[in-house]
Amino acid sequence: MDEVHVVVAHSERATLRVGDVFLKVDADQARIDVEVRAMSLAPVPTPEVLWRKPPVLAIAAVPGTTLGRLGGPSTGSPAAWAAAGDAIRKLHDAPLPPGVGRAGRGVGGLAAELDAECALLVANGLLPAELVTRNRQVAEAALRPWTPVFTHGDLQSAHVFVEGEEVTGIIDWSEAGRGDALYDLATFTLGHEEHLDDVLVGYGGAVYREVIRAWWSVRSLLAVRWLIEHGFDPFLPGCEVDVLRSRM
């Protein structure tokens, strides 16, 4: 019998792997609705939906290996990272999906959320004030109008699978919707800045790198407290706090 492997688990959702099947358990069925709809619309390889019985979604494993994970070594050749950039471009060029995902929050609301989170990080002694202040300054470049595109919304490098120089699957679409293209690019390269040039070669076109760097600060600032409260450690080497420190 195949063993049950816990991929991720916290109070909001859990993902288990049994053989070649992933079981996603989510108390919020709206997230599962978004995921299933996004996978059906995205013009890139996505997992096959095997069955759905709330609160569980069963999907097939995709072939290949991930390009990396935050806090871990990056894998894949520069050409593989470029291929991922090309796949991301295809997604962003696709017709807009319904709904607004994580990457599509309004500028005013995002700024207010970020300011409140920065205040809590300092007040609770989680991060030094100087570190928070500097990254809040860097983050300002992301707080500008953008043209909405079809975004994945949580495009971590661990969510992109490749074989050789071909993208074989992109997983975890529960945050998909209309949003800022540079948010996806920033999420994908978070903690793997050395591959940004490779990704942009595949992505093509003019891209404002300072906005990508700003999104690195935004995502990290907003993640630290949530990660701690849910049993994860953003202080591990190469993770969110190191990303923030690299902006100093």
Automatic annotation (TrEMBL):
SUPFAM superfamilies: Protein kinase-like (PK-like). InterPro entries: AGP_Transferase, Aminoglycoside_PTrfase, Kinase-like_dom_sf. It comes from the Bacteria. Residues 41-202 form the Aminoglycoside phosphotransferase domain. This is Aminoglycoside phosphotransferase. It comes from Streptomyces badius.
